[in-house]
Task: inverse folding
């Protein structure tokens, strides 16, 4: 009887098992992050929006209210009304508000869920880059990203960092996938994700599209060096034509191009493009806030060096371009000097670091002489420091959020008192609001509690001059409001309110006034430059607080 040949073995089942096991572990990490953020969002739900959060939440709520009321004309008008910030996230958030209600908790949970979804996408990118060890590098990259302070903080805020991370990673994943197994469908999917990234935030779109374009051009230049080859016009048409068409249509709207150009202006235009602070601030921020511990920045630096040496590796080239272009934009052009502005780009570095670690350390038993002893030592030291740092970071997270939210529960009492003095439909002008008690936040409150889409007008008064008094009189007459609310003691606006009183009293009578004491923290610069220990935090938080003594005065129009 002839011998039976054994069936050929294949590595596919173990690879699949590893991939599914890795995905399960990443989902566990992501779920733990989501539960951690949800617990803090619920615990601090009595902290109202500041102007930034209200700015990002209000348009979505207005769209949801229009949709809920069947006002399709208003819905489509608001659909295309955003100029400074493009509307990609607003559209998605409007759907969330329409389904689950427009509350501060829902709006903040949207950011937390975006971070939850971003971690499996990061894992999928690692699987595309490294089929053999991608499951492990994906788990490492997701764990490093889950420890980023800026992402965790912004996962509890109604901001664009975590939605921007999600859509950017989707675009990178779709492009890497299309590059490995090209087809019109995959290229069109990548183009759709690029469109969504551009319409989420111009910064994210510009960086992601540039990284993809560079990845497309590198092989073209390589072909030119070795003789002429036809350009991949059909591939480029599928990848870039839908993006170009949507972008042209969006920018051709009234105000579309001017809004994009306004956004493109540097945030700190008084600083030189190349400066010592620009060179050092974000590398230091990366070490302080975007790694489990400062020493891990050295491992990340090794990962960056490895990626530069292996830049031709599929996927690494794209992520390297994405990270370097994003960092260059923030460091040398935009100048915001806040760690959150690099939060969307750093996970790409975590992927490169994770792929380096798995490629160098897993085959150690076969090629230990080629492994870098310094990398092993640095990894052990970084792990030891992380074990000391991370528990303090998570223990302080709730206290940090109390400052990061920038508002205080007593501001709800101020808003409620104003509502008692005026009917919900009473139109009023808000004088001398500030970031923590803003016209945007009051507009959100009116929309969320009374389903009104009215935008509260506001005015920050300059020092009184004959010209400013005349302008105040004209603005007051043009506003056609029934009430005027003055906030004496506000950190914004002139303290010379009595100089404007005569103008206001010519047509308005004082109705009521009430005093409020509002805790106010001036810790932004300190928080953006330190990762505090528990004793440091208690000391600085106590010394960084001052009380605002606000006297709210309501004037009513004479009959």
Result:
């Amino acid at each position: 009887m002839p011998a039976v040949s054994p069936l050929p073995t294949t590595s596919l089942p173990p690879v699949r098992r590893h991939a599914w096991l890795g995905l399960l572990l990443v989902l566990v990490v992501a779920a733990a992050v989501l539960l951690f953020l949800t617990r803090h969002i619920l615990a601090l739900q009595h902290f109202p929006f500041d102007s930034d959060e209200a700015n990002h939440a209000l348009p979505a709520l207005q769209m949801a209210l229009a949709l809920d009321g069947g006002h399709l004309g208003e819905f489509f008008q608001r659909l295309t009304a955003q100029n400074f910030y493009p509307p990609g996230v607003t559209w998605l958030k409007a759907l969330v508000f329409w389904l689950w209600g427009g509350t501060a908790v829902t709006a903040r949970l949207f950011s937390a869920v975006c971070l939850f979804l971003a971690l499996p996408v990061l894992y999928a990118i690692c699987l595309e880059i490294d089929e053999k060890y991608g499951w492990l590098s994906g788990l490492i990259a997701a764990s490093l990203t889950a420890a980023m302070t800026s992402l965790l903080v912004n996962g509890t805020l109604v901001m664009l960092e975590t939605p921007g991370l999600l859509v950017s990673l989707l675009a990178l994943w779709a492009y890497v996938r299309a590059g490995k197994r090209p087809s019109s469908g995959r290229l069109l999917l990548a183009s759709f994700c690029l469109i969504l990234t551009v319409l989420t935030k111009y910064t994210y779109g510009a960086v992601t599209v540039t990284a993809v374009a560079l990845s497309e051009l590198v092989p073209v230049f390589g072909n030119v060096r070795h003789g002429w080859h036809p350009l991949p016009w059909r591939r480029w048409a599928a990848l870039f034509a839908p993006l170009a068409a949507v972008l042209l249509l969006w920018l051709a709207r009234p105000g579309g191009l001017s809004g994009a150009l306004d956004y493109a202006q540097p945030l700190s235009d008084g600083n030189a493009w190349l400066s010592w602070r620009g060179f050092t601030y974000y590398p230091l921020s990366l070490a302080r806030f975007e790694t489990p511990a400062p020493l891990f920045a050295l491992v990340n630096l090794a990962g960056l060096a490895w990626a530069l040496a292996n830049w031709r590796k599929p996927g690494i080239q794209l992520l390297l371009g994405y990270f370097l272009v994003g960092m260059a934009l923030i460091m040398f052009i935009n100048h915001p000097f806040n760690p959150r502005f690099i939060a969307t780009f750093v996970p790409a570095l975590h992927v490169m670091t994770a792929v380096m670690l798995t490629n160098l350390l897993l085959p150690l038993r076969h090629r230990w002489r080629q492994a870098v002893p310094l990398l092993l030592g640095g990894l052990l030291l970084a792990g030891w420091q992380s074990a000391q740092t991370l528990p303090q970071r998570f223990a302080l997270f709730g206290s940090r959020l109390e400052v990061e939210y920038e508002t205080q529960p007593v501001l709800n009492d101020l808003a409620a008192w104003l509502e008692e003095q005026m009917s919900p439909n009473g139109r009023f002008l808000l004088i001398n609001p500030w970031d923590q008690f803003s016209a945007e936040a009051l507009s959100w409150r009116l929309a969320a509690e009374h389903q009104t889409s009215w935008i509260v007008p506001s005015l920050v008064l300059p020092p009184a001059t004959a010209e400013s008094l005349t302008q105040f009189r004209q603005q007051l007459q043009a506003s056609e409001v029934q009430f005027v609310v003055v906030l004496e003691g506000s950190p914004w606006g002139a303290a010379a309110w009595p100089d404007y009183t005569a103008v206001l009293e010519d047509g308005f009578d004082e109705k009521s006034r009430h005093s409020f004491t509002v805790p106010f923290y001036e810790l932004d610069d300190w928080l953006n430059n330190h990762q505090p220990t528990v004793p440091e935090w208690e000391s600085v938080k106590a010394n960084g607080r001052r009380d605002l003594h606000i006297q709210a005065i309501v004037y009513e129009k004479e009959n």
Summary: The CA atoms of residues 46 and 409 lie 6 Å apart. The chain has two domains: 12-47+103-400, 406-557. The first helix runs from residue 12 to 43. The two ends are 112 Å apart (CA to CA).
